Batch of 2 targets.
Target 1
Amino acid sequence: MSSPEFSDGEAPAEKVTEVTGTGIPVRGNDIDTDQVIPARFMKVVTFDGLGQFAFFDQRFDDEDNEKDHPFNEEQYRGANILVVNANFGCGSSREHAPQALMRWGIDAVVGESFAEIFAGNCLALGVPTVTADQESIEALQDYVEANPDAEVDIDVAAETITYDDIVVDATVHDAQRKALVEGVWDTTALMGANADAVRETARSLPYVPDEHVEPAAGDGA
């Protein structure tokens, strides 16, 4: 299994062109962000450590006994491609949901459909949300359950999912695909790479003081 494969070439952020690894299926439609990360775990200053709380209430009962859930199963330990069904990530717009999944180890999410804000929050982390039809997704979930160690390849640029010599036509939203493939998904890195243009715009704004525009001494700008 490997982490995301990035293309060569200069870009503000790493270019996410392909994700290869093993899968973990989480079945069910309309799985909302409160199920992905319960609200009580969001009282944190940083996102560090959120991964251990992913799907917590689906994984444990009130006495912290394990429930039957894929995230508890040893066969999926180390899996980095989450395979879900329809309308995944609906409900609250909390960015903690993709943060928790990413910190658990998820590099890409494949499903029938995603809530728009959830997909946007995934993009901000460089995590592709890839869609395919219901039949193809359920077949992939079946395959992953039967072959948890088998490799699954997601080609973000070509919009395909490949496993067991099967190639599935997938969809990556045009704006997301462009941002990932060109390495412009990280808005902070993008602004840093265009610092001169940012300063020029700031200078044109009457409410931005000059001392907030000029680069600090010794920053090389």
Target 2
Amino acid sequence: MHNTTPRRGLKRGAIRLTRRGRIALIAIGIAAAATAVAVPLLLPEEEPRPKTLTIPEGWRSVQVYEAVDKALDVPAGTTKQAVSKTDLKLPGDAGGNPEGYLFPATYPLSSQSTPASVLSYMVNTANKKFSGGHVTAGADRNAVNVYQTVTIASMVEAEADNPADMGKVARVIYNRLDRGMPLQMDSTINYALNRSTLRTTSRDTKIGSPYNTYARMGLPPTPIANPGEAAMRAATSPTQGTGCTS
């Protein structure tokens, strides 16, 4: 009669592997590990960062911030937050607000580009463009400073239907300033309301904002967009005339 009692030390259900079996399991494990490592390499590659960023004439700073965020693939709002943390070479009149000094152009981007570096590039470009003798001479001739000239150019950019009308719009602005008239520019109200529209209602003209040029005299406190070279030329050398309506 055979002894059916399990051998001491060997649990029921335990399986003993032969040397060949152990080798097979090891091989399977290695293959599985190799597959796990290979999977990420098979995923689609991320889209490469664009090599340039183009800022059109007349964009507001909020539009520029959004474009930089997208181009650099950073979370929304990152570029706007970078403004206060970056030593931008802005004029004292700007009070740290780069509106008007994010110069419209095509800027190169690299893997090292950051919101701060891109903003600095734009402001430095604006300073070079706005420091030319024709700009300072034009500002003196029109009895305004350079920052005010940029502010006027930003309104010209927003108000003119085409480049040919820019000089005429600039002349209207200067004539109204000289005669102590409110500028009554719809573009400044649109800026205050963060919108773009061709219709301005009577109610709109009563909003309590320093950008309401219907109710307040003089220029708005800052530029309302980022003007290009054509608008700056119009602001420094407006069309001659005495009209006060556009």
